Amino acid sequence: MATDTPVLYESKGSPNSRRVRFFIAEKGIDIPMKPVDLGAKEQFSDAYRAVNPRSQVPALALADGPVITEVLAIWRYLEEAYPQTPLLGTTATSKALVAMWERRAELDGFAPVMEGVRNAVPGLKGRALSGPHAYDQIVELVERSKQRVANFFADFNERLETVRYVAGDEFSAADITTLVTVDFAANALKMPIPAEHTAFQRWYDEVSVRPSAAA
Amino acid sequence: MATDTPVLYESKGSPNSRRVRFFIAEKGIDIPMKPVDLGAKEQFSDAYRAVNPRSQVPALALADGPVITEVLAIWRYLEEAYPQTPLLGTTATSKALVAMWERRAELDGFAPVMEGVRNAVPGLKGRALSGPHAYDQIVELVERSKQRVANFFADFNERLETVRYVAGDEFSAADITTLVTVDFAANALKMPIPAEHTAFQRWYDEVSVRPSAAA
């Protein structure tokens, strides 16, 4: 292992951590991982706050100092530092299309699933938003989030009727966010892909069997 | 003008359009712009839906076909196609830091301002989220959004006590999102930078006089 290898702090139960592990596995690179036990609230420990004062995972500690948080920022570092198997596009147009579709998966899919969970779970009372600040849950958000997830399924089904992968012909980070969102919705909101969305299901059957999806 | 020049659909009153105009002006590139009149609901016209079925601005229509929406995706295209005056970082580490701080400005600042506005304004009843779907306003979100904006001011003030620009030593897209957020909060929520946050104000005084801020 080169001495300039970064270290990823992550948690098995964190969907955002899964987005990064999936990305790393697709690239076939070897990044040491340090598990953070969210069940034991280790993210609020002094030791972890010294790594990431925002008490969030994932976080990528670079060998030369800075700690990178936010999935998009960690992906950007890894894509630039390890260019093999590009997952964020290869041309100006494909990079833009990956950014656009990845963001749509996140804003229309991942974010509402997270919002639906965090505003509902009793254990997250007063912690409706991740991060260092306390925010009350808002119960009306739970229903609105579920409407948004239903619309996400329909919109992405329409998209996947015309393309093999979310951003087009090539597997990309947009597929990673979409797959993690589907599994997160099924597990946490009990909202699997609706049976009528056969194009979405075709895509899911193809992408979910990639070995990297189990990372 | 080269025949492969894209066209930007945008609106003067749209803070997301301003993020793109600001970026273009910083790069000093010449991108033709087509105004979309949001006051007249032109974004819902058949003509504009043919450009962007999601009825949102900004949108960048590329000469070779695809229409790119989402600010981050438009920025990515412009950064790759017009590499002069990089605004998304230059090394793996600085690219990651720009992505991280830009996202923090957006998630902790820009998004709550938008949420506070869209869930409050009578004219946006049933349109609490931008895009093709109808969502009811949730009045409790207005207060929670304002709390988030207050925390954003405090957190970014702390950051700007130790760095010249949001992402570090260099002006970047993170400064663009932060400046647009500050003006949006002041105008739409009547929340200017609190007087005690002198580091944030020092940064604002420096960045807001760049000619590109008026684009």
TrEMBL record, chains A, B:
The keyword Methyltransferase belongs to this UniProt entry's keyword annotation: no
Keywords: Transferase
Keyword Transcription: no
GO molecular function, one term: transferase activity
Annotated GST C-terminal domain residues: 91-215
Record-linked InterPro entries: Glutathione-S-Trfase_C-like, Glutathione-S-Trfase_C_sf, Glutathione_S-Trfase, Glutathione_S-Trfase_N, Gtt2-like_N, Thioredoxin-like_sf
The GST N-terminal domain, residue ranges: 4-86
Designated name of the protein: Glutathione S-transferase
